[in-house]
Amino acid sequence: MITGDSSIPELNPPSRLLLGPGPANINSRVLRAMTAPLLGYLDPDFVRIMDDVAVGLRQVFGTKSFTLPVSGTGSAGMEAGLANLLEPGDTVIVVDAGYFGDRMVEMAERLGATVVRIPVEWGKVVEIGEVRKAFQAQKKVKLLTCVHAETSTGVLQSLTELSRLAKEYGALFMADTVTSLGANKIGFDELGIDFAFSGTQKCIGAPPGLSPCAVSTAALQVISTRKTKPYSWYLDIGLLRKYWEGGERVYHHTAPMSMVYALREALRMVQEEGLEKRWQRHTRNGKALRAGLQALGLKLLVPEAYCLYQLTSVLIPQGIDDLKFRQALLREYNIEAGAGLGKFRSQIWRLGLMGENSTPANVLLLLSALEKLLPQNGYELAPGAGVAAASKVLAQT
Ligand SMILES: Cc1ncc(COP(=O)(O)O)c(C=O)c1O
Are the beta carbons of 211 and 181 closer than 8 angstroms? Predict the structure, then answer.
């Protein structure tokens, strides 16, 4: 049926405040960058833009090594790391402390690797002794991998000792920095990480669609001397490198130009703010939110010692209907809060203050919304206490 009219109505998505686990809202500068004219994938002007992105990524990861944004979301970076560093039969130790640790296990198993899973209670960090035991029990471990910022729980797993242990046992070390990049120091070179991957939609401040990755010289060496080709042609780092690095670029796939423009602008904004200031901003606003939630009598899942300030997990008070409550928040305040994942489904809310959204105004708005909606759902609280406690933290810092 060709009528000249479209049966698809005009696109008109609502403008939400995304205070969940990501995506987060992005700056209008980043949105505008996406409307810039398209270029060919080997146009010299596009190659210059690619180089800018690689430089910006090196800065946020803290590396002089090879960086690129893999086309695809954070899971594509996860798969790229595993598929390039592991060959069938290789042994990988996975520190599995949540939903995304589980995903790594699943991917590594599909690749035919021998997976040694170290289960960690959700909401906790790993006991380093457990990791050492796992290394001691294996003849040869190719890779140790973990999630830096576990978005399903709100835990920040320190990478320092894990990286050291991997080196001690001659293994490569990979970290999932999907939720940490832009909000926490990564220290790729300083810690000796071999592969890190992230997503653009969280603390970097761009839309979803690219997975920034950093690859160490040692990892590149391992990749270039593999006995078998990586199972995935699309995620083959050796092939991608010929497109993203060097004098003569070789076409691999059609880069999503508009996404690359967006990432470039987001990285430019990170540079303008300064990385350390950005980390401090996330910490300050996260601290204020935690103080406000606790002043309302709410229980937080993760102690301050290893919490993520960009993502706070709150236990849902007894008697409150998870879905109904989040729907009210959306309807009355236009705020999206995150639901619990996996075993934390209907147990916790995940409140994100990521990238552009990590602001004092959002902290106060969210707390004020909770102060209004929680009593309507039968939860007693001292009105104004949350906002006051958060304001105090913000005033002090
Ligand atoms: C820690 C972590 N790893 C991996 C992923 C997967 O990323 P994506 O959903 O962008 O594929 C996510 C997504 O939220 C995440 O939080």
Answer: no
